[in-house]
Design goal:
- This protein is α+β, with helices and mostly antiparallel strands and 357 residues long.
- It is built from six helices and 13 strands.
- Its main location: membrane.
- Keywords: Membrane, Transmembrane, Transmembrane helix.
Length: 357
């Protein structure tokens, strides 16, 4: 019965796609022609072994996709990025000044004592603690008001200390003089006369007239100490002391290194003065302390005892905060000539009672 039906017209479905008359069996998908053109990766595969071809060592799926039309974003000139410094840098105008990190010295720029002498000074201070404040009797208070202060040189001092009148002392040292601290009495400051007892401001001050014939380098330090203090060390190097050193103008507070930059070095013929001002703290709490320096009758500079300090290197301020007796202290070494003046009427600086620091 099937032989009675004719085949459908035309060639069998697989004839044109097979390219031959063989009866090969292929999936239905073989009846569809591939898309026109070469495969996308044909040219890159041809160059796969070319080391100078940028695509020769890439084998990623995205290589089969053409780049977007037009030049790359960086082809045209782009404006330089603008740095918004106002956003990056906060406003520091209201912050306190930073500590003087770059003005402190490990050693003096001019003269230095030996490490052994420094160690001896520290040992001396450990052996002799600061004295407790002593009340001033009537005679001591009268002498203090007149500036009738005694200046003492230790045994073995290589020089001379001569009283030239009430409140004035002439000092001359020999060229081989070693580091020496000249002590004074009575103390210029007593807690019994300070803010903690009176609630009022208290200033202390003295001057030194450097001989015009002195050598160019003035080997002199003017300062204050809370007694006792090692007489073989300059003031400012150990506990309870501060000073300005004339050879380099640096200031020292319990600092046996190189001090901090402060003023210009002293010169022959200069009159230099150093003072301390003790004032009641804010709200009546504590005592504020300012140290000030004058030269040739004019105020020159000052610093706050409690300024920001390096807690890892700076030693404590004990003895200088207004709760101990404080004496004038003058340090000398090698050859120097000067007059120490404690009498207020002989000072060149006239602002002791009136000038606001």
């Amino acid at each position: 019965m099937p032989d009675d039906y004719a085949p459908p017209p035309g060639p069998p479905p697989s004839y044109s796609s097979s390219g031959s008359g063989s009866g090969s069996s292929k999936p239905v998908g073989d009846d569809y022609a591939p898309p026109p053109g070469p495969p996308p990766s044909a040219f890159k595969k041809l160059a796969s072994n070319n080391p100078f071809n940028p695509f020769s060592h890439r084998n990623k799926a995205e290589d089969d996709y053409a780049p977007p039309p037009g030049p790359p974003p960086s082809a045209g000139k782009q404006p330089d990025p603008q740095h918004d410094w106002q956003m990056a840098v906060p406003d520091t105008s209201l912050l306190p000044p930073p500590p003087a990190f770059f003005t402190s010295f490990e050693y003096s720029q001019v003269n230095n004592a030996s490490g052994e002498e420094c160690a001896q000074g520290e040992q001396w201070c450990a052996r002799y603690p600061l004295y407790r404040p002593a009340p001033l009797d009537g005679a001591a208070q009268a002498a203090l008001s007149m500036g009738n202060i005694n200046l003492f040189a230790p045994p073995g001092f290589r020089g001379s200390v001569t009283n030239a009148g009430v409140g004035i002392w002439h000092v001359e040292t020999r060229s081989n003089a070693t580091d020496t601290c000249l002590a004074t009495y009575p103390p210029l400051y007593s807690p019994s006369l300070g803010p903690s007892a009176t609630g009022a401001r208290r200033r202390i001050y003295y001057e030194v007239n450097i001989d015009p014939r002195n050598k160019r380098e003035v080997d002199l330090a003017i300062g204050f100490t809370a007694p006792p203090y090692p007489v073989f060390r300059l003031p400012g190097w150990h506990r309870g002391s501060l000073a300005v050193h004339g050879d380099d103008g640096s200031r020292f507070i319990n600092d046996n290194r190189g001090g901090q930059a402060f003023v210009q070095p002293f010169k022959p013929g200069d009159t230099v003065g150093l003072g301390m001002e003790f004032s009641p703290g804010a709200g009546g709490q504590g005592i504020q302390v300012i140290i000030f320096f004058t030269r040739n009758g004019r105020f020159e500079d000052k610093w706050n005892l409690y300024e920001e300090r390096d807690t890892e290197q700076d030693a404590p301020l004990v003895g200088l905060q207004g709760y101990h007796d404080i004496c004038a202290a003058i340090g000398v070494f090698e050859g120097v000539k000067f007059d120490a003046v404690f009498a207020p009427g002989l000072w060149k600086w006239k602002g002791f009672h009136t000038e606001v620091l």
